[in-house]
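Researcher: Please predict.
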Amino acid sequence: MERIEKPLTLNPIKLSQPMGAMLAFLGVKNCMPLMHGAQGCASFSKVFFTRHFCDPIAVQTTAVNDITAVIDGGERSISEAIENITKKVTPDLVGLFTTGMTETKGDDIKGATYLLRDKQKIAYVHTPDFEGSFESGWAAVQQALIKQLVHQSKYSDKSKVALLPNVSMTPYEVECVKNALAQLGLECFALPDLSTSLDGHLGLKQGALSSDGISTQEIEKLGECGLVLTVGASVKSGGELLRKKCTKMQHLHFDSLSGLEASDLFYKQLLDYTGHKKPPRSVIHWRKRLQDAMLDTHFVLGSTKLALSLEPDQSYALAGALQEAGGNIETIVLGQKGEYDFDALSKNVRIGDFEDIEALLPKADAFIGNYHGHRLCKNAGKVHILRGFPNYEEVGNQLKSDILYEGSARLLFEVANSVKLAAH
């Protein structure tokens, strides 16, 4: 397998760790994400997510500048930022995360948090943008919330499930998993939970804090869950960390929930856990629909060469589901290394950037990736199927689903129809 790693990135695919951390904190109810860095870093991220979700985004910054960066160890700017926040609103949690500048300085954010513990509940996490990625920033917040907020428990409730989704799961995909668990009599708590905070619902007013999500009280009681589910290799270690909060907790991990085999495995393991003999009738019927969708789209996908460039968790999931239906995965370009073996999915896997995508597009018929691939596809005359961050072209992207039987069927139809329409 050809695996090329570039020494220089010219037109990057990768998103930074602080952005993943910020998105994760937005899935906690009444939370104020607080970026410890320059004002421009927070402004960019705010605009990025506002355009992607078409919703107002709550974030504050410590606004470190060239002077405070030299004379301040971090405690003062963090303290002043929290004082300013609490003058206007009363957050249940402040999510403090760092940037490259403050990490290079070596600011003691743990110590700053300790000094403010009597004034405001704070969760802190180190997310320098000179290392890691969008996925790792999200996963780092999950682990920080588990370590700092979840209480140790000797008691576990088998009917309660903690779900740790990966950063690429849309709010509606999180809701789909929660609904699937509810059909089996299980109560689900997602950490973080974007399905109620950034799902595109019309609230009573524009909130200064995150509108909804999992509450801090629910996070503290996650140790009482009888089961933890992790979806995606990037969040697997978070599930192991949560399991240590209660020795009676079980852990089920899924690399993907897209496609027939992945969906079958999901329901099989949950049926074994709950003791149900078979899934609900609606689930069985959607499985039959997915099987029919695989037959209907097989001829189009079988004659289509696909190029993908997404976060590793999403690339692995979508490539697997499309290949299962006969799709040819011509190439996969990743912004950073993932924890998957892509050998069975494509012979051409690269760690690269949009320059690589532009060079490889002539060999493909369609490209699945974010908004920034649109211009490249238009110039090359290729089909562009929007997935990942950012998506500035479409509205309602937070309600897309490519998981379980229903979402997988809709994915196959969307790809096949996009290719067929472009051919006419």
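Model: The first strand starts at residue 2 and ends at 5.
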